[in-house]
Specification:
By secondary structure, the protein is of the alpha+beta class. Helices cover about 20% and strands about 40% of the residues. The strands form six sheets. It has a six-stranded antiparallel barrel. The chain has a five-stranded mixed β-barrel with strand order 25-26-27-29-28. A four-stranded antiparallel sheet has the order 7-14-12-9, with no helix packed on it. The radius of gyration is 42 Å and the shape is rod-shaped.
Amino acid sequence: MMNNKLILTVVMLALGVGIGLAVPQLSRNDISPGASGEKEILYWVAPMDPNYRSDKPGKSPMGMDLIPVYEGEEPGSDRQEPSLRINPAVVNNLGVRTAPVERGTLSRPLRTVGYVTPNDNLFGHVHVRTEGWIEDLRVKTAGETVAAGDLLFRMYAPALVNAQGEYLQALQSGNETLADAAREKLGALGLGEQQLDTLTETRRVRPLIDVRAHHGGTVLKLGVAEGMYVKPDDMIMDIADLSSVWVMVEIFEDQAAWLAEDQPARMQLSFAPGRTWKGTVDYVYPTIDADSRTLRARLVFENRDRVLKPNMYADITIDAAPRPGVLHIPRMALIQTENAERVILSLGEGRFRPARVVSGVHAGDRVEITEGLEIGERVVTSGQFLIDSEASLDASLLRLTAAAGENGKTEPNSEQPRKDVVTGRGTVTAIDTAGGRVTLAHDPIPEVNWPAMTMPFAIKQSLAAQIAVGDRVEFQMMEMPGGNYMITAVEKTSVADDKDGVQ
């Protein structure tokens, strides 16, 4: 028993010494006043108006729950990247969605229309080589399908009958030179090798000569009928194998440099919504049409089920000028203004900030980003304009849209409002505090060439709370990206001030 008590005493002393040694190693940042491990709350702010502060929890003028600002997260803190913080509940209600910055291959989409035509490599005309009459026509109508070697028709041609007789006489004479010449004449008149061999074996003249298909396909045109007299320049029929078709397209001259052979292409037709055919650019013609200023190209598509018919119109998209290994984001995430482009970055935990970017190739619903983003960052794809509008009110966030120079210095911001701050006077006719808008019946404003009129302006809730309908006010406004005007300062005035000319 004594030994057990001694051991217990030693253990307790050891733990005490260990705790005493560990406590001095903790920093003040690790333990803040209040609950252990939590940072101190400095104040509370409105989710959509960081300028509205309170020293205790409560509701914002918009009726939203105030959010806490912790030590080290206040604006200007070195431990927190400047950003706009929005309550997660508000983020959810706004339907804010984000997407990651990705790396991959983008192409310039060339969109045009084209028409289906037979593949000339699988197309053929049927003609005769001597005059005669069509007998036993096997193909009755256009649209019928034939296979290579099928009998198309038989023909009675006096020239072929006479040439057969000359060949048989040469064979009987034993003169090989004469027989070879007669055989070549029959071949030139259209008699096939199999028919020549049969003639040589039977030694009998055949009045009707068989005309067979050189290749299989669909009979697109039929120019004869049973018993018709034909000549070599008459078109008998056209046969095309439609298992592969061409699509002829035209590209505008300013896009011609993007187009090249073997580029992938996609085709859609109105009769088959939702279905996409995949093909390639087979040939790019070497000249520009002088009238339409377009460049012609032909595409090749497989058509094994024969649903693509000649002369059909099609919507074509060609993936031209591919750019591999580029950063890209959803196109809807890009905010474009007259002077610059930017996106809203999601920093996590309800924090957002604008970032200046430079876009490159626009490929469908994706856009290349050449400057301003890194792989893995997340950009806002829905609700970004609301966040951007709120961020633009904060000068510290506006400075974030400028490119950082050397040694961390900030270069002049090209995304500042496009006009200087303008001063005006007017009467308040309506206030929408929740929506952040005020309607003013303002006097003429020469600085922006405005006559007297009544119009709405965006305004921060903290400023809207200072005025009431019917007040005569002096205000300052500035033009924001997109052409809208924001009230940046407002002060009640009086009719006497107006008469005195105070501006």
